[in-house]
Amino acid sequence: MKKISFAFLLTILSFACKKSAIGETQIYPSPDPVGTYALGADVSWLTEMEATGRKFYNASGEQQDLLKTLKDKGINTIRLRVWVNPVSGYCNTADVLVKAKRAKAMNMRLLIDFHYSDSWADPGQQNKPAAWVNQDFVTLKTSVYNHTVDVLTTLKTNNIIPEWVQVGNETNNGMLWNDGKASVNMKNFADLVLSGYNGVKAVNSSTKVVVHISNGYDNSLFRWIFDGLKANGAKWDVIGMSMYPSVTDWSAKNTQCLANMTDMVSRYGSEIMICEVGMPVSEAVACKAFIKDLIVKNKSLTNNKGLGVFYWEPQSYNSWSGYKLGAFDDTGKPTVAMDGFMP
């Protein structure tokens, strides 16, 4: 092949630009340049599933690395939960690093989700890590800060900088109960959020901090939490939401979610991310429509305030750990639901 000189390339580029400038040729940028809108999946079960022999396949039945399969479905961002001292070892700092390295190798972006617990933290349980149970509140705030810094520093040492970090998971009524239970002491909850926020910024000032609440259609819940946090000095960059509708109500719930997202932008100036979605694997066609519609609604927010949508553990086929809201079939292949992330 003939070599083309650099000068010749510059001439061609200059000519193309001139044509565009005088209107003879119009070049339209992609509506979603790489690095803007997050199409995501939480795959925190990945290493545990692989350790028990689970394998993943593309639609043609070819065995693949799960992240490759997801990337081919449009996923560009991975979400990983962090537990403090989990009994199994999965989702501790070392395990998170393994998965984060894999995501980085696939040129995928990263959302880190701190539960501040040894196990699941969600609207029904926000248990302190065993090592923190007897700490007074001042020490508890320090533990939140130090744990946040330690995990993010481990990632940074390996040249991994998350774009977003959640300080707490589905904190509908605060976290680290009972000290940080919002309905008991909103000020304490705000202080814990601020400790996490400060920990994130101390390691990577550019990383955006997410406060994550479930039921993204429930405006009164979101106003209560974020009014309380704001009044008590907490800081955040992004408001995170979960959406788990049914096949019969997803359209109505999405409409309510849009109204809530719009209110959150207007009320607090926050960016909005849908950190978790899911629907029964048996309802894959409806799930695809749900995802596509929610992405459109999130993208429609003013000033590009909508940041992305994440499926929660889509790869959990054969009801992994009893979970039935995945988006892979019983043979380990993605269902049509995952096409919701495709253009």
Automatic annotation (TrEMBL):
GO terms for molecular function: hydrolase activity. Its EC number is 3.2.1.89. The keyword Hydrolase applies. It comes from the Bacteria. It catalyses: The enzyme specifically hydrolyzes (1->4)-beta-D-galactosidic linkages in type I arabinogalactans. It is an enzyme of class 3 (hydrolase). InterPro entries: GH (IPR017853), Glyco_hydro_53 (IPR011683). Keywords: Glycosidase, Hydrolase. The keyword Iron does not apply. Belongs to the glycosyl hydrolase 53 family. This is Arabinogalactan endo-beta-1,4-galactanase.
